[in-house]
From TrEMBL:
Pfam families: ATP-synt_B. It is a single-pass membrane protein. It is found in: Cell membrane; Endomembrane system. This is ATP synthase subunit b. Belongs to the ATPase B chain family. It comes from Roseateles rivi. It comes from the Bacteria. Keywords: ATP synthesis, Cell membrane, CF(0), Hydrogen ion transport, Ion transport, Membrane, Transmembrane, Transmembrane helix, Transport.
Length: 156
């Protein structure tokens, strides 16, 4: 055999193999590679989109946290003001109630003093009548001498 014929015969199976590979093997492989490349691109795009959404969500969370902190600080300040106002109101009520109690006690003491004076006056008048009875050794009629006894009460 000739070397050229041998080369030619070897080229025939090689071209058949290339044609068969190009026709039946290569398209599914390229299709699978293209699909995989598309999945990778989609995954990278989704990752980029997720990063952007995460950044946006983090920014919103930071804004909400700042707003919540401000609102909490404002609520605490309001609560402290209200507590101080309640304490002041309670103090004022206590002072007012104390003043009322002192006033009532003074009025009660004054009434007791007046009652004691009246009782003392009546006792002194009775003693005066008894004393006068004993001195005069006669009975004094209280009904007849009511005016005299009234003057005696006022003098005492």
């Amino acid at each position: 055999m000739n070397i050229n014929a041998s080369l030619f015969i070897q080229w025939i199976p090689f071209f058949i193999l290339v044609w068969f590979t190009a026709k039946f093997i290569w398209p599914p492989i390229t299709k699978a590679l293209d699909e995989r490349a598309e999945k990778i691109r989609a995954g990278l795009a989704a990752a980029d989109q997720a990063k952007a959404e995460l950044a946006t969500a983090n920014k919103k969370v930071d804004e909400q946290l700042a707003a919540t902190r401000n609102e909490t600080a404002k609520l605490l300040a309001d609560a402290e003001k209200r507590a101080a106002a309640i304490v002041e109101e309670a103090k004022q009520r206590a002072v007012d109630e104390g003043a009322k109690i002192v006033t009532a006690a003074k009025a009660e003491a004054e009434q007791q003093s007046v009652r004691a004076r009246e009782a003392l006056r009546e006792q002194v008048a009775a003693l005066a009548v008894k004393g006068a009875e004993q001195i005069l050794q006669r009975e004094v009629n209280a009904g007849v001498h009511a005016e005299l006894l009234g003057r005696l009460k006022t003098e005492l």
